[in-house]
Recover the amino acids of this structure.
């Protein structure tokens, strides 16, 4: 098996493992994240109503610093918007991404702004 296929297979297994855990979360809102090479985006989704409550990304926005600090700033901004709409308790869906680097900085930004996981 090639290295690229092996990496993709591991990512798919991680995503499936996380998907199994999500079924036990009940009716909590879910924070879903997307990471590209340059940008990061996230949305708060209500799975019961199948509706996106909030979304924010670094596309077209002027955040200063490296990619990790941009992820933290996006997390803080999304968290502030969520707290303004009385959303305080969510669970984090990291999908296929490992919990380190930009993903970890994003979650720390969410916690810093007052969201609870």
């Amino acid at each position: 098996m090639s290295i690229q296929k092996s990496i993709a297979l591991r990512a798919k297994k991680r995503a499936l493992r996380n998907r199994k855990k999500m079924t036990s979360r009940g009716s909590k809102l879910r924070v879903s994240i997307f990471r590209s090479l340059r940008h990061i985006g996230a949305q708060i989704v209500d799975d019961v109503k199948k509706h996106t409550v909030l979304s924010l990304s670094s596309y077209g926005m002027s955040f200063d610093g490296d990619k990790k600090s941009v992820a933290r700033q996006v997390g803080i901004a999304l968290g502030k918007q969520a707290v303004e709409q009385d959303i305080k308790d969510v669970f984090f869906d990291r999908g296929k991404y490992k919990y380190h680097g930009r993903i970890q900085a994003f979650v720390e930004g969410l916690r810093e702004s007052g969201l609870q996981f």
Summary: The chain has one domain: 3-112. The domain at 3-112 is CATH 3.30.420.100 (Nucleotidyltransferase; domain 5). The first helix runs from residue 3 to 22. The chain is about 40% helix and 20% strand.
